[in-house]
Model the fold of this input.
Amino acid sequence: MLRMSTLLLRTLRDDPADAEVASHRLLVRAGYVRRVAAGIYAWLPLGYITLRNIERIIREEMDAAGFQEVHFPALLPREPYEKTDRWTVYGPDLFRLKDRRGNDYLLGPTHEEMFTLMVKGEYSSYKDLPLSIYQIQNKFRDETRPRSGIIRGREFVMKDSYSFDLDDEGLAISYEKHRNAYIKTFNRLGMKYNIVSAMAGAMGGSRSEEFLAPCPTGEDTYVLCESCGYAANVEAMVTKVAEFTGGSAPAMEVFDSPNTPTIDSLVELLNETFGGNYQASDTLKNVLLMADDEAISVLVPGDREVDLKRLQANLPGVTDLRLFEDADFEKRPGLVKGYVGPQDAKALGLTLYADPRVVIGSSWVTGANARDKHVRFVTHGRDFTIDSFIEAAEVKAGDLCPVCATPVVIDRAIEIGHIFQLGRKYAQALDLTVLDKDGKPRVVTMGSYGIGVSRAVAAIAEQTHDEIGLSWPREVAPADVHIVATGKEDLPFNEAEKLSLELEKLGLRVMLDDRRDASPGVKFKDAELIGIPYIVIVGKALAEGKIELRVRKSGEKEEVELSNAVAEIYSAITSN
RNA sequence: CGGGGCGUAGCGUAGUGGCUAGCGCGCCUGCUUUGGGAGCAGGAGACCGGGAGUUCGAAUCUCCCCGCCCCGACCA
Done:
């Protein structure tokens, strides 16, 4: 039983000044967590109980799916990460340290290497596969900008699983098992979520999905088709392109266009000069970037921006991507800022990528690669050719679903889980092979599956809180019922105590507010802030032999005969 | 890393060169109070983020450093 009189808990009346998002504010105010350093938090008893509840639910679902739990150190040697290149690729996000002999160590940001090596050390036959193992461990990433309290920290708790299979079919099955286990887990956690297509990213692999908890403070943006259910991270959104049906355009025609460095000014000039009804979407924007050491141009319709995240996600080999700066223009005199066109790209040494809307045969108004000059009727396939289409244009609400062509909606969310088919990258790098039926060594294929455990605490808080405090789903809450004794006599305290003990006997988790010195108002406010799903008040109504039962989420109140209290409370709590 | 903001007691804050750094919450003692963050009285708690400087005098001005928050970039 949790007793408020002795619990290490001090609720705060005011919002902490450094907290912006609801989960952060409330978890601090309600005494669940305290900040230790930027992006690093300590868990007080209530918070730690909540965190462990989530761990327990995850563990139960992982075990039920037949996955085995292991545990690795957080402190890891350099060598394995050297072999997979991540010692360098991970860059400054990796916490590195040296031991007294000067050897390099790191604090694990994720543990692919360790899992791979563990399997390599123990298994060597195809008969041992498939295998899925997982751990729940603190992870460390020296984020450039930790933010939103618990949502994005530098030290955080993650559940990560890895599957090991001989072939792609096996991997697909393991992936599906994890996917189902995740669905069960997040359902039990009482979360709203969407499963969306994601980019496998630089890790390679064929299939990748994210579990996103919709929430306005989320960092991820995704699209959802309410008609067919298609859902994708914006990075992975596929553009729906109408087939090109227009006729052939007249020959290219250069025209003077002084002082039109922006699309708006260009459209204005077009309509003044040529009449007609030109729109931003009739122009072709040439966005120049440096992709590592290569100059690239991304062609998008004039009414779209380039989304750098999407572009980066679709240029997996590129590590350093940035927009052209003045110095880059100076180095390439053929490129005139504001007047770039794709016609001479080859001569100018540009690699050309185009948004899928720039279909072959379509013609555009674009820059003439000369100051104060644009050109009309520039036709894809006739006047320029591209190196490749690319999904890099910003996604807007109302864009068409690639599956059923219905306008999609856009929403923000917190990423709470990510599953993907890793493939053989790590197994290859660390030489994890097993002998197949023919006695030949084969490289194992892997899947990787993560759940942000501490982040889930915050995500649930974000989704379930209200103006007055937290409001947990029962399985996650630090207790099932919060019993408050009020009054100055001993009677309510004694009755509350008895009630608590009896409810505990029935297997309920009870928090008892047995503080003698706190006023009723303080106790009620605290109960609402802390967010245990049921609140029982033993006080004034005792005079009529009654207690009061409240539902935190709905605010419903009900008076219950003391004689029936145990049964009624028990059935209210366990009935849903 | 770029832009913006902040740093005064456990928390929230006032204080633009002048007296002993003020207030609310919380904490301690006593009395009163007990169904919506109670009242009265008394009390503890701050090297004003750190360092250097300017000045008769610095929380306050200057410089450097550190830390933190927000937006962006980045992020298995």
Observations:
- The first helix of chain A runs from residue 22 to 29.
- The first strand of chain A starts at residue 2 and ends at 3.
